[in-house]
Amino acid sequence: MSFLAQARPPEPFEAPGLELFRPPCLTEWDLFGVHFCLDRGVLYMFLAAAIVIVLFVVAARGGSLVPRGVRNLVESIVDFIREEIAIQVIGQEGRPWVPFLTSMFAFILVGNLFGIIPGIQFPVNGRIAIPAFLALLVWALFNVAGIRAQGAAYLKNTLFPPGVPKPIYILLTPIELISTFLVRPLTLSVRLLANMMAGHLILAIFFLGTAYLLAKPSTIPFAVPAFALSVALVGFEMLVAVLQAYIFTILTAVYIAGAVHPEH
Amino acid sequence: MGELLSQVGAFVAQVEGDVGVIGRGLVFGLGAIGPGIGIGYLVGKAVEAMARQPEAAGMVRTTMFLGIAFTEALALFGFVLTFII
């Protein structure tokens, strides 16, 4: 039991907070009055992108008709995005969006899974920067897609949906304006951020709590269920990582579909 | 007099801190009520639809996840606000 005594956590129990998402800077510098800080979260972001690129390039170079190994995995992802998201939500016009949706799904998924991979344990999407950037990208893309598909009528169809009695527009137009152009990117980014942040905090609280309970002989019996639940929560986090990547991608497809197909 | 003032100041600061903690709890707790009811109702209805028409289960499930995502956003705003206020 001596190793437990050495790893004795501080007394009283201190719950982990947002400092989990602010690891120390590896290097920092000032450029144009902006403070840049390169910490391990940024490195993991590049690592996630590199993993996705390498996986897809390796899978694409296979060349044989029968998929094997990595190619099997990547083909199932691409097939899932194309059949279940792009074509089902957008329709046949969704085919050109498959590459974008697939790469975004893969990047978010790998970034989310970093939250539970031992040794890394840092959800890349647990900080607002990356979800916010992805949401702004999606916002710009669905607006561009709408303008390309409908021209100037896109704004008119979005803000003044046809088939509504005229006086209703006094109520409807401000709501449509706020919900389409302001709330969409906000909810899209906050949903991904809050899910990953909450999951990571809960995992940290449960594992640190288990270590705290193990430190005293009188509380060791309580550490057993705490540890069991911690392990179960890791499995739950795996589910959340996949589900959030899926939801982000399918919402992107829904927004694009809404912009491409005018309401009748 | 000065000592009394500093004591009052310390007391006010402590009460403010306590109220802040209670407020954080309230923000998330109250924010979770509506989405909790909403998601329960939504999934219940989706299960009902899947039981009535199992061949439409795939479509119902996709729509259910979409609805959950929209409903859940409100609860998540409450969660994020606990860290902001």
Features:
A: 264 residues; mainly alpha; globular; B: 85 residues; F1FO ATP Synthase; 93% helix; rod-shaped
What are the SSEs and their pairings?
The complex is a heterodimer of chains A (264) and B (85).
Chain A: H1 2-6, E1 27-31, E2 34-38, H2 40-60, H3 70-90, H4 98-113, H5 129-150, H6 153-159, H7 169-215, H8 220-260
Helix pairs in contact in A: 2-3, 2-4, 3-4, 3-8, 4-8, 5-7, 5-8, 7-8
Chain B: H1 2-52, H2 57-84
Describe this structure in words.
The complex is a heterodimer of chains A (264) and B (85). Chain A is mainly alpha-helical and 264 residues long. Chain A has one domain (36-260). Helix content of chain A is 68%, strand content 4%. Chain A contains 8 helices and 2 strands. Chain A has helices spanning 2-6, 40-60, 70-90, 98-113, 129-150, 153-159, 169-215, 220-260, and strands at 27-31, 34-38. A two-stranded antiparallel sheet of chain A has the order 1-2. In chain A, strand 1 (27-31) and strand 2 (34-38) form a beta hairpin. In chain A, helix 2 (40-60) packs across helix 3 and helix 4 (98-113) runs antiparallel to helix 8 (220-260). The longest helix of chain A has 47 residues, at 169-215. Chain A is globular, with a radius of gyration of 23 Å. By secondary structure, chain B is mainly alpha-helical. Chain B has a single domain, classed as F1F0 ATP synthase subunit C (F1FO ATP Synthase), CATH 1.20.20.10. In chain B, 93% of the residues lie in helices and 0% in strands. Chain B has 2 helices and no strands. In chain B, helix 1 (2-52) runs antiparallel to helix 2. The A-B interface holds A 18, 84, 88, 187, 190-191, 193-195, 197-198, 243, 246-247, 250-251, 254 and B 62, 65-66, 69-70, 72-73, 76-77, 79-80, 83.
Q: Helical residue percent of chain B?
A: over 70%
CATH 4th-level superfamily of chain B: F1F0 ATP synthase subunit C
The N- and C-terminal alpha carbons of chain A lie at a distance of 71 Å
User: Main beta sheet of chain B, described?
Assistant: none
β-strand amount of chain B: under 5%
Please state the structural category of chain B. mainly alpha
